[in-house]
Amino acid sequence: MNHAGVAMMDNRQLAYVEHQGKYEPPLEEMEPPCMRFSVNLWKNEPLDWVELICLLPNGFILILRVNPATTIQMVKAEMVAQAKMMPMSYVIKEACEYQVYGISTFNIEPYTDETKRLSEVQPYFGLLSLGDRADTTTISSDYELTKMVSGMIGKSFDHHRTQGSPEIDDFRLYMTQICENIEMERSIYTWQQRLLYEHPLRLANSTKMPELIRERHPTRTFLIVVKNENDQSTFTLSVNEQDTPFSLTESTLQKMNRSQMKMNDRTADYILKVSGRDEYLLGDYPLIQFLYIQETLSDSAVPNVVLQSVYRLESYINHHNEQAMVPKRPPPKKQPALLPKTPSSLWDMGNYFQLTLHSISNVNYDKARAFKVGVHVGLFHGEHKLCAQRSTDSPNGNFDTFLFNDLVMDFDIQMRNLPRMTRLCIVIFEVTKMSRSKKSSNNKDSTLKDVSYNKNPLAWVNTTLFDYKDNLRTGRQTLYTWTYADDIQSDEVFHPLGTIEPNPRKEECALVDLTFHSSGTGSVRYPSEEVVLQYATDRIRRDNQMQQQLPEAAKPLKELKDLLANYTGLDKIYEMVDQDRNAIWERRYDIMCELPEELSILLHCVYWKERDDVAEIWYLLKQWPLISIERSLELLDYAYPDPAVRRFAIRCLHFLKDEDLLLYLLQLVQAIKHESYLDSDLVVFLLERALRNQRIGHYFFWHLRSEMQTPSMQTRFGLLLEVYLKGCKHHVAPLRKQLHVLEKLKQGSLIAKKGSKEKVKTMLQDFLRDQRNSGVFQNIQNPLNPSFRCSGVTPDRCKVMDSKMRPLWVVFENADMNSNDVHIIFKNGDDLRQDMLTLQMLRVMDQLWKRDGMDFRMNIYNCISMEQRLGMIEVVRHAETIANIQKEKGMFSATSPFKKGSLYSWLKEHNKTADKLNKAINEFTLSCAGYCVATYVLGVADRHSDNIMVKRNGQLFHIDFGHILGHFKEKFGVRRERVPFVLTHDFVYVINKGCNDREAKEFCHFQELCERAFLVLRKHGCLILSLFSMMISTGLPELSSEKDLNYLRETLVLDYTEEKAREHFRAKFSEALANSWKTSLNWASHNFSKNNKQ
User: Fold this and answer.
1) Per-residue pLDDT band at 45 (split at 50, 70, 90)
2) What sign for the dihedral angle of Cα 642, 645, 649, 654?
3) Sheet strand arrangement including 304-309
4) N or C: which terminal CB in the chain sees fewer CB atoms within 10 Å?
5) What's the confidence (pLDDT) of residue 820?
6) DSSP 626-681
7) Who contacts 910 (Cβ-Cβ below 8 Å, separation ≥6)?
8) Tens digits of per-residue pLDDT, 24-39?
9) What range(s) does the C2 PI3K-type domain occupy (predicted)?
10) 4 Cβ contact partners less than 8 Å away, ≥ 6 residues apart
11) Would you say the CATH fold of 529-656 matches that of 140-198+678-727?
12) Helix 1058-1074 with 1076-1089: angle, nearest 10 deg
């Protein structure tokens, strides 16, 4: 900074001086400064310097000419130093008492992160102000909220549009109270508790060494390397399975003090951190219980940890630097509005449900072909229709608005029997004529015109019959519809699982004008839980008195078990006949006492359009024993909309450990879409867990934000994001940094689409080196895994990949200098949600196998969708595609896929000794078995040699899951893939250690592994089906209706006995083996046409 100027406002004149190290001219002799405000200051090419106009606390104006790479901290120091050399220097305080402010898009912004460079913050006009440090607790309500909503939630969320709705206002109020209560808890955390919140421990459920690891460590001891952070010295120690982090730290310090002749250090002053990531070993847990230790030992590697002083921990420093938070007064509770009359109870009303249809307007229909437009109206509970639908057609003719002359529609269900979660579903359709010729039965030469009518659905809309306060909707309302998408793969006319949100694009959509009838006695409310339970109690008491007069013989439990066994797989539960339904409902108390896990079957026997059944199931759920996590998740899909059922499911999920919650978080966030109101037990459960565990909060944030461009989810998910960010201010800064990285990578991906591969590679690297961009990548958490902290990007190692969407290969420097760098693939243009779902299901399967004592060495990389068709994928290092291996070993010939020894030769090349090669073959055999079964069950399609990879250690894994659930590709009407799963001759050659004998003991063992793996998944078929059911409303084209689950039912064969299921799988295994030549032929064609080696 070699150029500075000062000026002072003094009534009507502005004085200026060129400063040369001391101040001499009197104020009255100063000339006005020449200040030029540039609107496009930061839009120009990279600048060598910028001119800043700085407003100082003593009233002077300072002009600084600085490099754009200068940090805010350096600019502040220079502003204070210059101010102290001017008149009125006595008013200038120390630099630490000031904060630099600039003008941003929405407001005057305090630059709280002073490590940022000017090129990152880009103050408008280059105008800065030096002022008193702001109290961050006071700006969070207005400025920070606006900034968070606009910058972090996404532009799609209209904060102002969500104001004025009573439901939204009450939701915000209630959620704010929850957040403030948890914030108060966090304010009294010790530094250890704060560390566990920011970096939660990853623990296995059991304290024992897993059987598979014990086989490799029969003495139950293992080695661990501890590095001293201060001097980088390392110590290798032998520990047993019951040693704890404290005992390991104690042993390390003793060894370190002996070797370095130091005084004894206190064990409590140190903590163990996993090398290369922000993950800690802390607490009175056995070392073997930490998942990092288990994962490393499973890889036949040695765990590496760092001995770190607690006084250097960010959690410790921040805890001691921050002042104790002043307890806030809770916001005043909202007083309920006084009703003119006590509302009538819905259960006192015996009349039938009615509504009046007035008109539909703004309908986009084919005026050339359609001669009518009509409406279907139905009442639904979940996906089940409560009574016959009502339909009507408009008068003939083409109109913009269709009037129905205040048509009253009567429905065949009494008001008292309407379930609490009843939905009114409406479909607008057009009527077209379709004529076809047919032969006359009397005269073979003559033809008749057979005219039929098509009703083509155009738009749909759903709404609840009751509002969020249990009041029945009454009065005239306008409903804003959604276009009926062409890709909805369903034969049903209605769309009851669709959103209940109105279409926000009100000017573009069709409108339905109708009136909900009132009772004429004021408002009508669904009875409270207390009233329902009392009704059920009275009814049960009467029934018991009658049964005492007519006693029945007790029925055997085996009879009930045999009856339930017909429906235990979820595959036939929707086909239940009335006779079985009545028989199961009659044994409801036996099920509760003896077979509580079969609750879902009983729920399908409830007549939801009968209030007596509804009351009794609410009564039973209050007493029902807690059920397993797997069966609880099942109750949160679209088939169970009743609030008491979903509340019971959440009660069971409260015992879910954090690691297991992360495993199912994707489905639980999607299940929010099945909630009828903003506030629900599921929303509260997820919010509380996210606020108490920052790792859960990280993925909670990204799962919500990735769908903010979906119009039907903008309000619901936007409000949840707003609440979460307000409730965890400590998490805002790291998330904002990740968003800045996302924006820069989006800009980089646009560069990558502009030219040849080599040209855009250079352009991308120049972009990443630019000082205006490079600072964004410093000190960030990896969005794929927040345990990894990155200190910056390595431009020279970044590149553009050779595929249609030009993904970016980005290399980040690990903040831990002694650890491996972080490699990611950034994709712009591909929908990663299906990949994310498939990888998560592979992770679930891996957990199920491990619980059963089988480790198939699955290599399940991380993948995250961050916005619509935008996301990141973890790069698996030291791996190569089958295509590149075959082309390398087959000298790039078209017949390389038929050369069985290519893969085996590649493994030998990377595993020189016999022991290493045997280990690699074992890794290959196990992982191949796991992926064969997993891809078969999930129906993973489009398998070719470029999306199956092998690591140098032998682990096989699949990538790119664009087609699942049996959606196999076809060409000219012929299905490309004709095998259940990939098992080629070169795979068999590796499994058999270099021979092709399919009767070899190694291959028989491989087949046995596959069969065992399949039977384990089949045993947990209910969980797999439930997790996919919960994803039906995600908008994935290959998972849009109940029919898409049929593939899973066919592969899992849940209605077979175990022996019959084994025989079924053996037949599929033999089919894959017999047709492996077809796979090789496909791969040869693929290899010939492409060369994707990166």
Assistant:
1) low
2) positive
3) 234-240, 221-228, 304-309, 270-274, 280-281
4) C
5) 92
6) P--HHHHHHTTSTT---HHHHHHHHHHHTT--HHHHHHHHHHHHHHGGG-SSSS-H
7) 920, 952
8) 444 444 455 555 666 6
9) 349-517
10) 19, 62, 63, 64, 65, 78, 82
11) yes
12) 50
- pLDDT tens-place string over residues 548-558: 666 666 688 88
At 193-214, the pLDDT tens digits run 999 999 999 999 899 999 989 9
- CA angle 99–104–107, rounded 5-degree value: 80
HEC readout, 360-381: EECCCCCCCCEEEEEEEEEEEE
Q: Considering only 306-320, 451-465, 589-603, 718-732, which range has the smallest mean pLDDT?
A: 306-320
Residue 607: count of CB within 10 angstroms of its CB: 15
Which residues partner with 410 through β-bridges?
354
Q: How confident is the model at residue 336 (pLDDT cuts 50, 70, 90)?
A: very low
Fold of 529-656: 1.25.40
Separation of alpha carbons 121 and 17, rounded Å:
28
CATH of 4-134, one of 3.10.20.90, 2.40.10.10, 3.30.200.20, 3.30.2350.10: 3.10.20.90
Range 140-198+678-727 classified under CATH 3.40.50.1860: no
- Report residue 24 CA to chain centroid gap: 64
Identify the CATH homologous superfamily for domain 877-1089.
Phosphatidylinositol 3-/4-kinase, catalytic domain (1.10.1070.11)
pLDDT of residue 12: 31
> Which amino acid is located at 649 in the chain?
A
**Dihedral sign from CA coordinates of 362, 368, 371, 374:** negative
Conformation bin of residue 460: beta by default, left when phi > 0, alpha when psi is -120 to 50: beta
